[in-house]
Design a protein that fits this description.
The protein is an all-alpha fold. The protein is 96% helix and 0% strand. It contains one helix and no strands. The longest helix is centred in the middle third of the chain and has 132 residues, at 5-136. The protein is rod-shaped. The model has no long low-confidence stretch (mean pLDDT 90).
């Protein structure tokens, strides 16, 4: 292999070409790639932060929902218990009122029966007296 001036000129022009390509093409491309990588990393970090904060918010809302459900359930249970107690007391009062009314009606009927029996006894005594008077001719 011969080393002459063309080889030296070719080597120098190749070196100059590499420096020019490095300045014109490679450095801007590498810079764009680094910027893109930094942009993607920032977006990925931001997405991870948003995901973790979203998870915390979801957990918080689920806890609030569980508390609200428990409160609603206790309110419903409490309302049902109050309704049952009120219904039971009203039923008992109604039954007591009906029992006292039945007792009053029984007493009234017994009094009426006693009065009727007394009147029948008086009437039968009078009829007996009339019959005896007629039989004896008085």
């Amino acid at each position: 292999m011969e080393f002459n001036a063309t080889f030296l000129v070719s080597a120098i022009s190749f070196i100059v070409f590499v420096f020019i390509m490095n300045a014109i093409l490679y450095k801007p491309v590498i810079k764009i790639m680094e910027e893109r990588e930094a942009f993607l990393k920032a977006n990925f970090d931001e997405a991870e932060t948003a995901r973790s904060s979203t998870g915390k918010i979801v957990e918080k809302k689920q806890a609030e929902l569980a508390v609200a459900r428990a409160d609603a359930m206790s309110t419903v249970t409490e309302g049902t218990a109050k309704f049952k107690a009120k219904n039971k007391s009203e039923t008992e009062e109604f039954e007591k009122a009906q029992k006292s009314r039945v007792e009053e009606e029984k007493n009234a009927l017994n009094n009426e029966a006693n009065n009727s029996e007394g009147e029948l006894n008086k009437g039968s005594a009078e009829i007996s007296k009339i019959i005896v008077d007629k039989v004896l001719g008085v």
